[in-house]
């Protein structure tokens, strides 16, 4: 037995240490236990405690079959897998949930909270859902690959306006997608396969997941300057320079409104200049619309940039999400719209989009789209929704004011006016990574590493705690 | 294929480039299997009729060899390839990359070079007034889902949709299970519920109940926490996420599919980047399983290949191995160190018994080896449009299962971030409540039995008409479909003259039949087979 132990340390080094439980599973399948269970591999010492050593020692002295007669323990085909890191944004909530401290604040994910700190399901959504569920004439048949037709039509009209020339001319093909992410991915896959210049320019900074989705779809990611840390506003000159230097025909990612993470949006006249340049260079705009209605509280005003691009005769792509503005986060409701030069082209594009979707998930989920279609198609529900949406946007603006006032009152060093100027759900605080880490460790305040806080996660009751944390961090941490 | 090369000019570039290389390139000839090269040759042959201008020479060569730094930069940038040295070495670098990366590289090269060529010739960017997508190919309709589209367009008063495998009642209506309606009502009435994002891996309670359903509660793999289960978008989504994972972490292995198999398998695996091969499965003579052929092919596949297996009620043939045949299959797969990937879309639908229908999967999961399972609730819980399913990976240890799960999350985050909540909540409510679960199981048995009844009735109707041929396979085949044995032409006759819609491989969805429509179908089959109208 001693010999076999020595043998196994050299020749069996590829075998992973067996846990106690997996040893018993081998017993249950009737295969002989091999003495490599007695191997002590270097990795063991980190992973396992002393208890396992005792287990192994026991097995070591049992009358085990010799190596010759034992069946070799097959190696897992996943031997070489490493633990993947937690997603940078979603991992914040994971860490928050693990935190046992009674006083903690989650300002990570952009999910709306009431002033009581509770998630919110919109009243119109509850009403629509109740109606759908009670209607026994409804079925759960597969949707077409492109999704619920009524939903697609209403989404297109919400984004572009029902009487927009591109809508009227039937030049837009809209397919239901899995919220913003899914719509971006399907659009990017299509562009990667069919567009002549598979290079996409994203603003610096941008939503973290953009940089994961586009390469996967075969698009090379480049960037253009966007945020100016000095002014905490838009680096318009830098942006224009970089767009000009970018190749003709490149794809340009644009946030429709309430830029994530900075909350900095171009002014209308700046949007006009951006549009002129992009069109002059034959570049292809790819819009990401996750916050329509959250920027100003007005759905049409928030769509100004998108609609101006769609009206100038050029083509574009739009990924649209209902996660935030209809609070349908987990239902995964969104849409991808391709504005084309002609109705015929739009039809061709639709066919190719189906070829992307069918091998990915066949067809989209019914429930969320049915809720949206119900709300958008009924005057009363539509009206009530707009009011609830404005209510959410207003509460966020109120939190901005409360936070700003509290910081002023505290006398916290620094210029905090950007809290008031930035638009949408987030504030790009300007806090550094060490300050962010400090706030998490000492105050159990959770935010993404770039200093972005979700104002939607703040409440009147929690503002003081956040102010304490920011004040302490800014005064004492670099 | 043609859509990849949008304009005639660009096609010309491809032709010129690859005709030349295909004939003379030593790199091309040496490529193992010559897969890409043969593909190119077939393509160039097919494009030979296209008007190819002599002005556009081998663009790849030209740009690689060119002294124009601009063109080289374009190539380098789009394909991360360093073009250094002499024209010959630069060309070699490009071609090596091309054969390494295959058609994606070529497509992009031609696109970027086509653009470069165009701008070189015209000295200005492509006209913005020209629609970018003008030359995009008209995509063909999906063969399975297209059947329903065609059926819907048909204005005939008497028509029959036997295309998609969606259950229909005796009245020919779609069916929402009572247990599902009850669960949904409970969920909708509960104001304490919210619509927050699920974790990337989905609803934890759903994942637990799903794996316990397919594997049974006391399966050692479950007890030892060796199974990673991730909520996905029904069967398709589970297959795709699993395939993407294999492409990333189990590379160089081909996936072996039964011949024939569900059509969309052949869409999913290439999209993930997996190479597909097939193993013999259906014996059209006997209309049963070609077990010898299957075993031979599994034995001759390289060790460690991925093997796709239908858990039960094989789609489209309805032919399943017997338990003793499954045992042989399992031994061969384990001996060769193959990795089984089960597609389980019909648990409960084949025999009406959930355990019986999961017997094959469970025997694999119980032998200590590893496997993947794509599980769908579309049919057995009638949740088609809600897109509910799960990918389970049975691993050798809990540690590995945890790591594997973390890697699957990476794949999902860039596809759709997290799965939809509604359908999974329904499943959780039904499976988690004793009464609802009982009610569901009884409804499931009801659906399976009705299908079996339709089989008997169709068989009897054909016997009555003395339709030529042996129709006993209608009784022997299992699950929702009958692989009728009718050929494309016969199917076309049935559609044209009787407005009977089915997939062109002769697959009939028995769930779409009812006692009142069986005679019509029998007439249609009779006409198609005898050639009389």
TrEMBL record, chain A:
The keyword Transferase applies. One of its GO terms (cellular component) is mitochondrion. Belongs to the class-I pyridoxal-phosphate-dependent aminotransferase family. In eukaryotes there are cytoplasmic, mitochondrial and chloroplastic isozymes. Its EC number is 2.6.1.1. It comes from Chara braunii (Braun's stonewort). One of its GO terms (biological process) is amino acid metabolic process. Keywords: Aminotransferase, Pyridoxal phosphate, Transferase. It is an enzyme of class 2 (transferase). SUPFAM superfamilies: PLP-dependent transferases. This is Aspartate aminotransferase. One of its GO terms (molecular function) is L-aspartate:2-oxoglutarate aminotransferase activity. InterPro entries: Aminotransferase_I/II_large, Asp_trans, NHTrfase_class1_PyrdxlP-BS, PyrdxlP-dep_Trfase, PyrdxlP-dep_Trfase_major, PyrdxlP-dep_Trfase_small. Its cofactor is pyridoxal 5'-phosphate.
From TrEMBL, chain B:
One of its GO terms (molecular function) is L-aspartate:2-oxoglutarate aminotransferase activity. GO terms for biological process: amino acid metabolic process. Gene3D superfamilies: Aspartate Aminotransferase, domain 1, Type I PLP-dependent aspartate aminotransferase-like (Major domain). Its cofactor is pyridoxal 5'-phosphate. Its EC number is 2.6.1.1. Keywords: Aminotransferase, Pyridoxal phosphate, Transferase. Residues 159-525 form the Aminotransferase class I/classII large domain. It catalyses: L-aspartate + 2-oxoglutarate = oxaloacetate + L-glutamate. It holds the Pfam family Aminotran_1_2. PROSITE patterns: AA_TRANSFER_CLASS_1. InterPro entries: Aminotransferase_I/II_large (IPR004839), Asp_trans (IPR000796), NHTrfase_class1_PyrdxlP-BS (IPR004838), PyrdxlP-dep_Trfase (IPR015424), PyrdxlP-dep_Trfase_major (IPR015421), PyrdxlP-dep_Trfase_small (IPR015422). It is an enzyme of class 2 (transferase). GO terms for cellular component: mitochondrion. The keyword Chaperone does not apply. It comes from the Eukaryota. Homodimer. In eukaryotes there are cytoplasmic, mitochondrial and chloroplastic isozymes. Belongs to the class-I pyridoxal-phosphate-dependent aminotransferase family. This is Aspartate aminotransferase.
